[in-house]
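S.,

Sequence below, as promised.
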Amino acid sequence: MGKYNSISLFAYKRPYHTFRTLKALVNNPESIHTNLNVFIDGPKFSSEKNKISSTIKLIEQFKNNFKKLTIYKSDVNKGLSSSIFDGVSHILKEESSTIVLEDDIVTSKNFLKYMNQSIEYFRGKPKVWHISAYNYPIYRKINPETFLWRVMHCWGWATWSDRWESFKKNELSRDPFYLKDIFSKQMIKRFNLDRNGENWWAQVESNANNEIDSWAIFWYAHIFLNDGLCLNPKYSLIKNIGLDGSGTFTVPRKEVIVNLDNDVNYFIYPNDLNEDFETVRKLKNYFYKIRFIRLLNKLISIFKFFKNKIL
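The prediction came back faster than expected:
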């Protein structure tokens, strides 16, 4: 197999979600050869202590399923952003790469195989900054087994110490006001996939307004400013089970249907280290349809509201 990269798992107060995440991980044959580092954030309120304690006890039950299990428990509440930044930085001080998960990501049985092989394949290719295990549900429309594009997705990902060190050293890259100063309108357009993707730039604005405390959008911005690329698989290898409103910055929303029971191996990588124009075009079409559906649903809701008012 080659190298087994460590996993950095971030958990808090969701024992049931954490159980599902770990249960899926141990279905990966590579898990028994893998070091698992778990970072537990401290309680924001005293009422959270019991749930955090239950989460830790649950994690300890999986110690025999991994090569080594290490739990890092914070006495204070850092928040998700600082917890992930500090935790990944801690691991990448000693290791050359790591796989990162949060406690609401259920993985397929091929997740670790894909991650380990992708990390090693692109290790010496600095144009690639980020390995993602997620893809939007458009696999019937795209051809390559993996593809490169500008957008970073953080639902199951990996990176290398040299790329992360660049992000860690550049404090301005994590300052929303600095980003607002240097990003031109044209850059923001490209950041949002030429206005055809989600409005990811809105997350920078929300951080500046203290509405959210996100780390991921700054990682994406840093990759973007360095003309870096991110690898994604054709078929998603993860499923987010935290869209039930249990997360720190989430509200309940419809779960994306993902088939994790496939036996496809995702080891055919692009030879051309440039953004996959054709796949990106199809992703833009996907986002266009999503925006149209959202607008249609909104208009239907408004129509029903006024209809009920009249009746």
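The beta strands are 6-11, 35-40, 68-73, 97-102, 105-107, 128-132, 146-149, 157-160, 229-233, 238-240.

Coffee later?
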